[in-house]
């Protein structure tokens, strides 16, 4: 089968190679027992894969290896106790190996794909939306009527956070850097939009009537202190990632004076040890899909052999929504 592998740690352009490899066995190295084998139609592209091409991600497999954590496709085989069966359309999270014609995922990371969504939507469903729900509901304790400010609001995690927040009954404010990204954020459900190069902190406080309840931050960097300053009393900043590169430091006196919190939301490591929690989150996301709140925003699409172009788009901060590789020809 065809797959894209990282063959050297030299960055997005030179690290990748399209190769012929054997089809994977229907088991997953990170979990005991049989996994779900998926014929991949679309694969998601995310910032961690950019880091992997440089050897900068926390998970460092030996090269060569096939990256790719999210796929949308059709089940080829599944264990009897899985929630999906052969022939089902699925969204699956495989951690590695997704940029290939066939991938394998743990049974608890394979979810039936609702009829409303296509394979490209499926390739953007698990990582971003499960992270958003975990961050907002399970870590951030979001309640109906609260106001959520989302950084990087036109990206994959950002658009997911906006949609999940709306589905949970929150008011949403998006932080973006351009007109095009504002369009994407509003498509994802942003009720208010402020610009990252403007006085967004003061605008957010004015819009929210004194301060926001929750900030979702997948960016990090210099804006983190102003995120704390944008909170109302009892507000929470949820740290999801650091796509801006710099990892900020917190002066904890700010937390004391404002009675505010900084909360880490490390979805992957947490749910990997709790298979049953993935089922719970998947059911919650299905309810939000059925309610019309969740529909992944699919951005640029590339054929498998142009995976380097997809990574460079993300690395250059030019991506909006979910970047997808069309592994099988998209349906007309």
What does this molecule look like?
The protein is an alpha/beta fold and 332 residues long. It has 2 domains: 2-125 and 296-326, Quinone Oxidoreductase, Chain A, domain 1 (Alpha-Beta Complex); 128-268, Rossmann fold. It contains 11 helices and 15 strands. The protein has helices spanning 47-52, 119-122, 126-139, 156-167, 179-187, 200-208, 224-229, 252-258, 267-272, 275-290, 307-315, and strands at 2-6, 16-20, 36-45, 70-77, 89-93, 102-105, 110-112, 147-150, 171-176, 192-195, 212-217, 231-239, 261-264, 298-303, 322-326. The strands form 3 sheets. Strands 3, 4, 5, 6, 7, 14 and 15 form a 7-stranded mixed sheet that branches. Strand 8, helix 4 (156-167) and strand 9 form a beta-alpha-beta unit. Helix 3 (126-139) crosses helix 4 (156-167) and helix 3 (126-139) crosses helix 10 (275-290). The longest helix is centred in the last third of the chain and has 16 residues, at 275-290. The radius of gyration is 19 Å and the shape is globular.
């Amino acid at each position: 089968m065809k797959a894209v592998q990282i063959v050297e740690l030299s960055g997005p352009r030179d690290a990748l190679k399209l190769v012929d490899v054997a089809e994977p066995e229907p088991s997953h190295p990170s979990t005991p027992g049989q996994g779900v084998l998926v014929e991949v139609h679309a694969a998601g592209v995310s910032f961690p894969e950019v880091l992997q091409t440089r050897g900068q991600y926390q998970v460092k497999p030996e090269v060569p290896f096939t990256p790719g954590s999210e796929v949308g496709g059709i089940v080829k085989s599944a264990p009897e106790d899985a929630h999906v069966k052969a022939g089902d359309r699925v969204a699956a999270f495989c951690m590695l190996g997704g940029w290939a014609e066939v991938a394998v995922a743990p049974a608890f990371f394979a979810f039936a794909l609702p009829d409303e969504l296509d394979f490209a939507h499926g390739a953007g469903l698990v990582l971003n939306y499960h992270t958003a729900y975990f961050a907002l509901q399970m870590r951030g304790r979001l309640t109906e009527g609260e106001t959520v400010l989302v950084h990087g609001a036109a990206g994959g995690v950002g658009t997911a956070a906006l949609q999940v927040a709306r589905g949970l009954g929150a008011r949403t404010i998006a932080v973006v850097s351009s007109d095009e990204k504002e369009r994407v954020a509003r498509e994802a459900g942003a009720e208010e939009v402020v610009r990252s190069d403007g006085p967004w902190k003061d605008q957010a406080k004015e819009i929210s009537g004194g301060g926001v309840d929750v900030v979702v931050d997948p960016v990090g960097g210099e804006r983190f202190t102003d995120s704390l300053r944008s909170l109302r009393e009892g507000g929470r900043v949820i740290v999801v990632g650091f796509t801006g590169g710099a990892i900020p430091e917190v002066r904890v006196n700010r937390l004391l004076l404002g009675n505010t919190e900084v909360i880490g939301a490390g979805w992957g490591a947490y749910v990997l040890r709790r298979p049953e929690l993935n089922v719970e989150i998947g059911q919650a996301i299905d309810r939000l899909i059925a309610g019309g709140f969740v529909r992944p925003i699919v951005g640029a699409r590339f054929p498998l052999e142009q995976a380097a172009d997809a990574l460079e788009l993300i690395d250059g901060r030019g991506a909006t929504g979910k970047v997808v590789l069309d592994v099988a020809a998209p349906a007309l």
